[in-house]
Amino acid sequence: xxxxxxxxxxxIAIHVIYFVGILLIGYIKTMNYTPDIEDSWESVDTLQNGxxxxxxxxxxxxxxxxxxVTLFCEMVIVLYRKVKGAQG
Length: 88
Known about the structure:
This protein is about 70% helix and about 0% strand. The chain starts with a helix and ends with a helix. The protein has about 90 residues and is mainly alpha-helical. The chain is elongated. Helix 1 packs across helix 3 (about 60-85). The chain has one domain.
């Protein structure tokens, strides 16, 4: 049970790092965006009325990735312990 908890904590950490990284990349791209006004006069298109931030997806996708990364972390921990035990 201790191994599963350690792997779940590793999975949570990986998911948090992923989501924070995605947010930081989006923030940096938004702050550094400079519109090209000179070339935009050549073609005029209808703009959208609303803006949406984030992503949509099935909550089961996040559950499956959490379980998959937990199993991967568990395998890494077991292999690390075997390698460490063989050396010591």
